[in-house]
Amino acid sequence: MSNSVNLFTIGFTKKTAQQFFDTLVNAGVKRVIDTRLNNISQLAGFTKRSDLEYFLRKIGDIEYVHMLELAPTKDILDDYKKNNGNWETYEKKFLNLMSERKIEKKIPPEVITGSCLLCSESKPHHCHRRLVAEYLKDKWSNINIYHL
């Protein structure tokens, strides 16, 4: 990989559907990569899997892909929620998981180019989508990360 790759991230909470879809379209996102473990919850509102896939295609001609290999395991997630959200522990466990899964070898760079990693957190600071983006940047080095 020699050319620079743009990788976006977005969380859907605290955004209206209009803000969410306008942001993706205006950024020129080609594909949304859903990194959530559970993407069919009623709490997901307009980002429930089947609805999201439809809206993305209709509103922005944006492809939708769900990649469970970029999601935390239920154990890691539950442990984080039960331990009052100890971020350092979660981050370490999640980065080890990405390393064990060797996501940098399993995901073709073409899939990442112009894509947007999606999860629920409104800000990237305490969110696994940022960790995925930074992990891939560390492995491939030519990624520009934009948090939408």
Main traits of this protein?
alpha/beta, 5 strands, 148 residues, globular, 17% strand
Chart the SSEs and their pairings.
Elements: E1 5-11, H1 17-27, E2 31-34, H2 49-60, E3 63-66, H3 74-82, H4 87-101, H5 103-106, H6 109-112, E4 115-119, H7 128-140, E5 143-147
Please tell me about this protein's structure.
- InterPro entries: DUF488 (IPR007438).
- Helix 3 (74-82) runs antiparallel to helix 4 (87-101) and helix 4 crosses helix 7 (128-140).
- It contains 7 helices and 5 strands, in the order E-H-E-H-E-H-H-H-H-E-H-E.
- With 148 residues, it is of the alpha/beta class.
- The longest helix is centred in the middle third of the chain and has 15 residues, at 87-101.
- The two termini are 24 Å apart.
- 46% of the residues lie in helices and 17% in strands.
User: What is the alpha-carbon Rg in Å?
Assistant: 15 Å
**What strand line-up does the widest sheet have?**
3-2-4-1-5
Counting H and I runs of at least 4 residues, what is the number of helices? Answer: 7
The termini sit apart by 24 Å
Q: Tell me, what's the shape?
A: globular
When the domains are counted, the total is 1
Arithmetic mean of pLDDT: 92
The amount of helix comes to: 40-55%
What fraction of residues sit in β-strands? 15-25%
Number of strands: 5
Please give the largest β-sheet. 5 strands, parallel
Give a nutshell description of this structure.
The chain contains seven helices and five strands. It has 148 residues and is an alpha/beta fold.
